[in-house]
Design brief:
about 30% helix, about 270 residues, five-stranded mixed sheet, Metallo-beta-lactamase, Chain A, eight-stranded mixed sheet, 8 helices, alpha/beta
Length: about 270
């Protein structure tokens, strides 16, 4: 007999390519069955938003899930992008030019607007090179007021330098993207990311009274406190492993030729 608790979340639609799950009334997870990140729909009494939208190739399946709950793109007031990776934002250009505002942290917005393909992982996801316009540049402490939901913007770097988490303190909803996943799985450290920043961000999440974790990949979780505890331990382990690897590579011996090259260049500039 299985010891696993039954899920408190209700599956509303399950197709070959996507699943629509109700996290609570008016809050939905759209989980794609490929490499695309999860998308979230929050239907507020005043405004309706999406948090991440997945890959461009998943857009028809995103529409299928939205239609199932009676929401069309013209009813979405804002799309909030958690960070710059295309598995989260690839379909965002479908909302440009419509009534929907697209928002991201200012560091992510800069990378997206300049079409920084390396930071956005374009080759990894083979996404079309289509511009995505960012209408609103978010910062730590901003509030997104939907009426019956109020989402605080938290700057939580680590996975990249531009990650944000959205938190509703009244309902305990934690939209953590790739900063925290069920079971304490880490989203990895990419490009501009930092393990030390990751740990600091997770410590901030640990201090929240979160009740439901809505992450960038995988299932919904009703044990976010346990998830963040495990993630912090794994992050410290990763930091320790990295330090050992750094020592094994004899970093000082490798670093010295680089510094000598810099000194040589400085001498040339002086002549």
């Amino acid at each position: 007999m299985s010891d696993r608790r039954p899920s408190p979340f209700k599956i509303l639609l399950d197709t070959e390519l996507c699943t629509l799950i109700a996290a609570m009334p008016d809050v939905y997870q759209i989980r794609f069955k490929n490499r695309a990140a999860n998308a979230y729909l929050v239907v507020g009494s005043k405004r309706t938003i999406m948090i991440d939208v997945g890959l461009s190739s998943n857009f028809p399946h995103l529409l299928t899930c939205l239609n199932h709950v009676g929401v069309t793109p013209d009813k979405i007031d804002m799309v909030v992008l958690s960070h710059e990776h295309l598995d989260h934002i690839g379909a965002a250009y479908h909302f440009n030019g419509k009534r929907t505002y697209v928002a991201a942290h200012r560091l992510a917005a800069n990378k997206i607007m300049l079409r920084d393909d390396f930071s956005m992982l374009r080759k990894m996801f083979n996404e079309p090179n289509v511009p995505i316009d960012i209408d609103i540049w978010l910062e730590e402490g901003n509030m997104i007021d939907l009426g019956n939901f109020r989402l605080e913007v938290m700057y939580t770097p680590g996975h990249t330098s531009a990650c944000i988490t959205l938190f509703d303190p009244d309902k305990g909803l934690l939209f953590a993207a790739d900063t925290l996943m069920p079971g304490g799985v880490m989203g990895g450290v990419f490009g501009s990311g930092s393990i030390a920043d990751y740990i600091q961000s997770l410590e901030r999440l640990k201090g929240l009274n979160s009740k439901i974790l809505l992450s960038g990949h995988g299932r919904l979780s009703d044990t976010p406190q346990e998830d963040v505890r495990i993630a912090i331990q794994r992050s410290h382990d990763l930091l320790s492993d990295t330090a050992q690897l750094f020592d094994a590579l004899d970093a000082r011996a490798n670093f010295e030729p680089i510094m000598q090259s810099v000194r040589d260049l400085n001498k040339l500039d002086d002549n």
